[in-house]
Amino acid sequence: MNGLVKLEKRDGVAVVTIDNPPVNALSPGVPEGLEAAIAQANGDADVRAIVVIGAGRTFIAGADIKELEFAAWGQPAKLPALHGLLAAIEDSAKPVVMALHGTTLGGGLEVAMAGHYRICARDGVVGQPEVNLGIIPGAEGTQRLPRLAGVEKAIEMCVTGKPVKSGDAMAAGVVDAVVDGDLLEEALTFAKGVADRAPAPTRERNEKLGTPEGNAALYAAGRALAAKVRRGALAPLKAVEAIEAAVALPFAEGCRRERELFAECVASDQARALIHAFFAERGVTKLPGITKDTAARPIARVAIIGAGTMGGGIAMACANAGIDVLLRDTEQAALNRGMDTIRRNYDISVARGRFTPEGVAERMARIHPQLSYTGFETADAIIEAAFENMAIKKKIFSEIDAIAAPGCVLGTNTSTLNIDEIASATKRPESVVGLHFFSPANVMRLLEIVRGAATSNEVLATALGFAKKLSKVGVVAGNCPGFIGNRMLFPYMYEAQFLIEEGAMPEQVDKALTDFGMAMGIFAVDDMAGIDVAWRVRQELKHFAEPGVRHPPVQDKLFEMGRYGQKTGRGWYVYGPDRKPAVDPEVTALIERTSAEAGVTRRAFTAEEIVERTIYALVNEGARLLEEGCALRAADIDVVYINGYGFPARLGGPMMFADQRGLAKIAARVAEFHATLGERWTPAPLLTRLAAEGRTFRDYDRERE
Ligand code: 3HC
């Protein structure tokens, strides 16, 4: 056919193979090749049935997102016009059997649903994940899926974007058979069994659709689900609307409506942001000096120092990935507490159906608690997860330097401290790297990988591979105080605290931030992370140590009062047994008293002002560290904030948000804050420059690629 689609005949069955690595996306040439193959098979008197299958690791994983990106940014795009192809498949006089394996997603499932039959390898999944990109299925998926799976299932799949396993897909009616053997052989057998039969096209199967009136509750539930799982997102609501059209309108008109809604979504800021986030996440591993040939070492055994919250979470993350763990603490009581917590967390996972009891037993068996360094010489990586204190960390590093095998990666889970200073305690600074996990480490996807001055490319590549093995996204940061994430967090957090001295209250700031889209407000975050932890970091990093620098005193007072946050039941908020934050009049009074003592006349703040003061602080610091080289790309910063700090993906991360809001607008506001609020608002030179030149952070990234 063409280089991307092949056609061969096997025993009266035409086998059409899509071969467009890595994921058989519907790039230009694939739909054309498929259509030509279907036509040729139909014109061949010897062919009685057609099998469509994917080469390599998967059936089609969707439309080519690179083309979608062009379309989203208003550039000429070669988006596949799939409607002709789908009609050609469905109208094929010879039955078309779609043989699915791997990840049949988006346009891939849409192509598959146009076939007359679908068989799926047992470990395959199918899904309509378009909402992850801010769009809806645009090739009749919202019209065919409800016909096969019913309206409720179609809504669930299109709104959540979550793929379903082969067995569930079969139960729902999306696939006709799940097979275990060789997929092609199974497909050929299946095809011969249905050859010469007049197949019913999906578009005519209306029996599962119901009526608009009868489905009203399902549509309402779909919208409620969208609000719950994708707060503020446009695409899931449009997906429900498109499915409503499938029920209310004849097939062709429903498809037209879907196309209109798809076009609306593609042109939205949210689609631009989410497509940016998709490629940003996959771009983080692209680093100068690191190629596929860089000798990354496999990590099969990890030794962890410290069985506290972080150490325990890291141990679980490793055990979940099949890695053997030596978990060391200096005191038996601490070790017991750590192991109990791990056990309790796993029990919760079993109760929630995430793991089986056997799966947990296997994981627990991988974690070996111990008081000594015994066996550390066998570890591929040693991760220190002790207190955030330089002296302690240096002592530990000098100890492990004496034991670790040559080539062992020496990682520190510091969230703020200087990697080079920690590395100086060893004779092998090239092996030392920051591995900044986020709590809970077995859940959070981000791993900040901090490159010290001496860290070798091999160690960095090993750390990136380790992140991937843990199913995390590893982002490389430079060794600046706080790295990427926390360095930006400080001005954001402190600005929120200045706001409360000036007249806002924590609950109002937090509401403005969660309404903006943040997963949590900053005061709730502070309570979760621990006010005592933040206090210790302030001491280590000597924040506000310079004379004359304005400092927000309430946090210190809370610390002195022993209000450490969630762990003590009181912090910025008070926590009941449900662990939900509630306003504490004691804190309200403390804040008001503090303002009075400082001679500040409290005033009201709008939500918009709060967002500007806090989020722009984030952006300004992001611009500064980007120019300094602490982050390689603005997109890396976005990945950090989306995956580690609850920044809404639909806004694309702080730097993409800034681009979309307009750098000129943000720079002007930052300059105003600088004039009225002082030095801490000194505009980042990069922000000022890009704004003046009418460029964006995205442009900056592109120009330096
Ligand atoms: N288009 C273009 N490139 C794609 C792609 C796609 N649909 N899916 C994956 N890729 C690329 C990635 O960018 C990456 O490229 P790189 O190596 O140069 O960085 C490479 O394929 C491998 O991807 P991953 O690193 O993500 O590999 P994994 O094995 O971890 O995951 C996957 C594979 C599950 C297929 C995952 O890539 C994925 O979820 N892809 C997106 C699937 C999707 O969203 N499909 C719907 C597209 S929209 C659509 O179809 C619209 C339609 O309705 C018209």
Structure description:
With 705 residues, the chain is an alpha/beta fold. Helix content is 50%, strand content 12%. The strands form four sheets. It has an eight-stranded mixed beta sheet with strand order 12-11-10-13-14-15-16-17, with helices on both faces. A six-stranded mixed beta sheet has the order 1-2-3-4-6-9, with helices on both faces. Strands 5-7-8 form a three-stranded mixed beta sheet. Helix 25 crosses helix 28. It is globular and about 90 Å long. It starts with a strand and ends with a helix. The mean pLDDT is 95. Residues 22-23, 25, 61-66, 103, 105-107, 110, 129-130, 132-133, 137-139, 141, 282 line the site of 3-hydroxybutanoyl-coenzyme A (3HC).
Please specify the SSE layout and strand pairing.
Layout: E1 5-10, E2 13-18, H1 30-43, E3 49-54, H2 65-72, H3 82-90, E4 96-100, E5 103-105, H4 107-114, E6 117-121, E7 125-127, H5 141-149, H6 151-160, E8 164-165, H7 166-172, E9 177-179, H8 183-194, H9 216-229, H10 235-248, H11 251-266, H12 269-283, E10 301-305, H13 309-320, E11 324-328, H14 332-351, H15 357-366, E12 367-370, E13 381-384, H16 390-403, E14 409-412, H17 419-423, E15 432-437, E16 446-451, H18 457-469, E17 473-478, H19 485-502, H20 506-516, H21 522-529, H22 531-541, H23 554-560, E18 574-575, E19 581-582, H24 585-597, H25 607-628, H26 634-644, H27 654-661, H28 663-677, H29 685-693, H30 697-703
Parallel strand pairs: 2-3, 3-4, 4-6, 5-7, 6-9, 10-11, 10-13, 11-12, 13-14, 14-15, 16-17
Antiparallel strand pairs: 1-2, 7-8, 15-16, 18-19
Helix pairs in contact: 1-3, 2-12, 4-5, 5-6, 5-10, 6-9, 6-10, 9-10, 10-11, 12-26, 13-14, 19-25, 20-25, 25-28, 28-29
Bound molecules: 3-hydroxybutanoyl-coenzyme A.
